[in-house]
Specification:
- The protein has 12 helices and 14 strands.
- It is α+β, with helices and mostly antiparallel strands.
- Among the domains are: 181 residues, 2-Layer Sandwich (Nucleotidyltransferase, domain 5), CATH 3.30.420.590; 61 residues, no CATH class.
- The strands form 5 sheets. It has a 6-stranded mixed sheet, with helices on both faces.
- It is globular and about 85 Å long.
- The chain starts with 28 loop residues before the first helix and ends in an 8-residue tail after the last helix.
């Protein structure tokens, strides 16, 4: 949802008065020298002005090419035509929440895959909330465990990734909004083939792999510890593997975050942003495998991009939404229960535009930060810390 146009403020000071022209009297030699110096200065300024104009024209042409490619190639999610629902949870004006779904759809091989695995409808393989605060101070990418046991509106309790097959993308949006007490502005889905092509269009991405592992039973791929280059099918296997890890989905989500950060670093690097052809190649390769709501059009994308021209890779923060204990349902399904206390803090942090504070608190909870400076409040305080220190002032409303 793009913001309304705000007119520029008028500059202060009186308007310049028109200058009357008169015939100049003959000048001395010194005067002629000064005039020649002025002429040279004006000539240099004129050249610089011309260069600026040329740069603007090139940039405008480049921008038009990007907008044209975007509008011609993008696929609109027809079922999502009213994301700006006034009954949904409100967020601060200017905040952007994008729900990013990696679908496990396999395109033309989908039916064969379902027959082989016995799985039902399509499920969301990766679920991420991309939160961009109003002041554009950063981008927070939160992965949500697909086995999280939540309330799915109208269907009762279930794994969060089952909402897609139960009621489509509208139900996924409703489920996430109800869970986080926030509003989803945009939805973007991408399938596996598009992910492969994205890493290829970028010329590969580089990941600091914290643990060695192999992926795949037939012709397995090995990923050593340390900095590795990922592209195409190797990148896809890296983000999908879960059987090689004792904590399966947790490591899988971490690997997805590593690749997301690597993609952002590669895209925001100088050799990509300074190469219009590479950016266009990225768009042309990924857009056919993406779908997005109709509000995420070229003008909106350009507006967001202009808001974040100073964004760098270290301004992008990735983390996994805290969850509770593993649990086996009465039907024998292995699921992950939510952490109610952390969910309260997460909701309040989203509403207060202080996800940095939330991540600080997670670091404290994980033992990554010294807690000696935090004051313990009343014994019945469920979070056990000085809330104002972590997530800011004015949070006297608990949902």
């Amino acid at each position: 949802m793009s913001e309304p146009h705000r007119p520029r403020r008028a500059r202060g000071g009186a308007a310049p008065q028109p200058q009357r022209t008169r015939r100049q009297s003959p000048k001395s030699a010194a005067g002629k020298k000064r005039r020649r110096g002025t002429t040279i200065t004006v000539s240099i300024l004129a050249v610089l002005a011309a260069l600026v104009i040329v740069a603007v024209v090139i940039a405008y042409s480049y921008l038009n090419r990007i907008q044209t490619v975007f509008e011609e190639e993008r696929n609109v999610i027809e079922e999502l035509n009213d994301l700006d629902d006034e009954t949904a949870y409100r967020t601060p004006e200017g905040t952007i929440n994008i729900l990013l779904l990696g679908s496990d759809s396999r395109g033309e091989d989908e039916e064969e895959y379902r027959d082989a695995t016995g799985e039902g409808g399509e499920r969301s393989d990766a679920i991420m909330l991309v939160h961009i605060p109003e002041d554009r101070s950063g981008v927070y990418v939160m992965s949500i465990m697909r086995d999280l046991w939540v309330d799915i509106p109208g269907y009762g309790s279930g794994r969060i990734n089952s909402a897609l097959s139960a009621g489509g993308l509208e139900l996924v949006v409703d489920t996430i909004e109800d869970m986080l007490y926030t509003h989803i502005n945009h939805v973007v889905t991408i399938d596996f083939e598009g992910f492969q092509d994205l890493t290829t269009a970028l010329g590969g991405v580089y990941v600091d792999n914290p643990r060695p592992f192999s992926a795949g039973q037939n012709n397995p791929a090995f990923y050593p510890e340390g900095t590795i280059r990922l592209e195409g099918s190797d990148a896809l296997r890296f983000v999908r593997e879960r059987q090689s890890f004792p904590t399966s989905d947790y490591i899988r989500v971490e690997n997805q975050q590593l690749v997301m950060r690597a993609i952002a670093e590669r895209f925001l690097s100088g050799d990509t942003l300074s190469n219009p052809n590479r950016i266009l190649a990225v768009l042309e390769s990924i857009l056919p495998f993406m779908e997005m709501d109709d509000g995420l059009d070229a003008d909106t994308i350009v507006g967001y991009a202009l808001d974040m021209t100073s964004m760098r890779a270290n301004d992008i923060h990735t983390f996994t939404m805290p969850a509770g204990e593993h649990h086996t349902t009465a039907a024998g399904a292995e699921v992950i229960l939510p952490d109610d206390e952390m969910m309260t803090l997460l909701r309040r942090s989203l509403q207060a535009e202080n996800m940095g504070g939330f991540m600080d608190y997670m670091a404290i909870s994980d033992g990554e930060e010294d807690t000696s400076t935090f004051t313990v409040l009343e014994d019945d305080d469920p979070l056990g810390i000085q809330m104002g220190r972590v997530i800011g002032e004015g949070l006297d409303h608990v949902y």
